[in-house]
Amino acid sequence: MKTTKLLLKIFLALFLLYGLLGFFVLPGIIKKELVLNLEKVVARKIELGSVSFNPYTFELNANELIVHGRTGERTLAGAKEIYLNIDPLALVMGHVKAKRIEITAPFITIHKNQECGFNFSDLLVENEKKLPEEKDTSNSQLPKILVGKFSIIHGKVNFIDDSGSEPFEASLEPIDFRLRDFSTMEEHDNQLSLHIEIDDGAYIDYRGKLNSLDPLRLEGGLELHSGRLYTQWKYFRDSLGFIVADGSLDASLHYSADLSADPMQIDINQYKLQIDKLRLQDLATKEDVLKLPLLVLGGDANITSKEIKVNEFNIDGFSLSVNRDKNGVLNWLAYFPPSEPEEHKSEKEDKSPWKVSIARADIQTDKLEYEENYTKAPFSAGVEHLHFGMQDVRIDGDKVRIDHFDTNLSDFSLKDLALAEEWMRFRSFSVGGELHKSEKTDLDIEQISVDRLDLHALMDRAGVLNFSRLLPK
Predict the structure, then answer these.
(1) Over residues 385-390, mean pLDDT
(2) 319 neighbors 365 (Cβ within 8 angstroms)
(3) Residue 26, phi then psi, degrees to nearest 5
(4) How far apart are the first and last CA of the chain?
(5) Alpha-carbon distance 390 to 384, whole Å?
(6) From CA 443, how far away is CA 409, in angstroms rounded?
């Protein structure tokens, strides 16, 4: 009896001592070691507010973590709270099991300076130096890790760019990430979710499953909403010659992938792109050069076999303005930066062409305008309405097959700008048929018609026809 009481007292004493060490001593040690090791890794000053640890439930809380920037720089990163709950019995059994990992209000600041350098560039250089030599890991196994729930709550990314003509700042917030029932065990469904909100109503939403890590198989869906495109345009305005005055973009896709296969298998089971009320203006004149009320594109694709299927392609009511100056330069060429020369491609790179099939395409315009100043007589051409449709289109490299197409133009006019004369006008023009192009081009016109064609042709005393003035200088 005395022995039992003595053992009980010893057990209670050890239990209390363990609690005292865990609650009051261990947090200080953890805080000190955590700060020292983090400062060695990031080469920056680290601040950590408080650390608490429950030795009985193995719950760890770290509060007010701040990673300072280098001298003269903004704060690099931080978090309001980091919570970790480990299962101690799992450690005894030889694997890691985290019941819950939660990071509250983390943030990171990405700063691009006037010399186009980033505030974290030194970390990338140091990591490259420390990378160990590649080892054969073909027979290695992943460690046994289980995570019940991993969460990032209300995260934030600050982006600052001082390299352009004007400083640019944007933020991504809130960023919410959820990972449930994660495991490195085979054939285990790992639930993933990610939600990011950007300025002006834009967001990215992801839902998916990591079916297995070895082999790496995953599936899921992604949705993107741009908000007002003007906000995103402000970052690229130094390299573009136009203004995105209005418009929004929505995109979504569902995918499945086996990244361990050779070659990798990636299927886009369904994709959709929609652009609404897009309006572009010339940067210099502030005049509208493109209005696109609606564009819808949808279908599926197999990335591995390089096949794209378009089930739906509609453009409704867009207006376009094009002009060529006296030097023969089109205005649209000045709107985009010049393309860089292609780098030498590897001999191993897949050079097989993409295969594209379009079930149906329907394009309707409200107004097309073209002004030509590179000819002997400047002229303008305009179409009030155009409808172009295609069915059963197949493209395979240089081979093109269109089983049926039809084009209808309404109210076309051609005017001499110098003399303010109208040289040609017709109320409507329509043509339809099919096109096959391989080694040779076969164009089969099934129907063609012109309604109310008015042509003003004039030859001067020197025998020069007025239409010849439309030729380039």
Answers:
(1) 95
(2) yes
(3) -60, -40
(4) 117
(5) 21
(6) 19
Give the residue with greater pLDDT, 88 vs 46.
46
CB 119 within 8 A of CB 68: no
Q: Which two tokens stand for residue 295?
A: 């564009």
Q: How confident is the model at residue 20 (pLDDT cuts 50, 70, 90)?
A: confident
CB 67 within 8 A of CB 44: yes
Segments of 325-398 assigned E as strands: 355-372, 379-396
The tally of CA atoms less than 13 A away on the side-chain side of residue 73 is: 23
Q: Burial letters for 410-431: b for 16+ Cβ neighbours within 10 Å, e otherwise?
A: eebebbbeeeeeebbbbeebee
Residue 247, classified by CB atoms within 10 Å of its CB into exposed (0-12), middle (13-18) or buried (19+), is buried
Note the pLDDT tens digit of each residue in 111-121: 998 888 899 88
Q: Which of 206, 196, 148 is nearest to 176 (CA)?
A: 196
Rounded distance, CA 435 to CA 401, Å? 6
d(CA 294, CA 317): 7
How much is the pLDDT for 376? 80
Q: Is the omega angle on the peptide bond into residue 263 within 30 degrees of 0, that is, cis?
A: yes
Contact (CB, 8 A) for 292 and 315: yes
pLDDT digits (tens, 9 = 90+) for 275-327: 999 999 998 899 999 999 999 999 999 999 999 999 999 999 899 999 999 88
Average pLDDT over residues 364-368: 92
* Predicted TM-score of the model (pTM): 0.78
Q: Which of 104, 148, 12 is nearest to 20 (CA)?
A: 12
Please count the residues of the chain: 473
CA dist 30 and 46 (Å) reads 14
Q: Identify the bridge partners of residue 408 per DSSP, sorted by sequence position.
A: 387, 430
d(CA 191, CA 428): 57
Under DSSP, is residue 115 helix (H, G, I), strand (E, B) or coil?
coil
Tokens (6 digits) for 42: 């990031």
Which residues lie below 8 Å from residue 265, measured CB to CB, with a gap of 6+? 257, 258, 304
- Residue 236's φ and ψ, nearest 5 degrees, are -100, 5
Mean pLDDT of 61-66: 96
Report how far residue 464's alpha carbon sits from residue 149's, in angstroms, rounded to the nearest whole number: 82
Question: How many CA atoms are closer than 13 Å to the CA of 102, on its beta-carbon side?
Answer: 13
Quickly count: other Cβ atoms within 10 Å of residue 175's Cβ. 21
Nearest to 253 by CA among 271, 275, 273, 226: 271
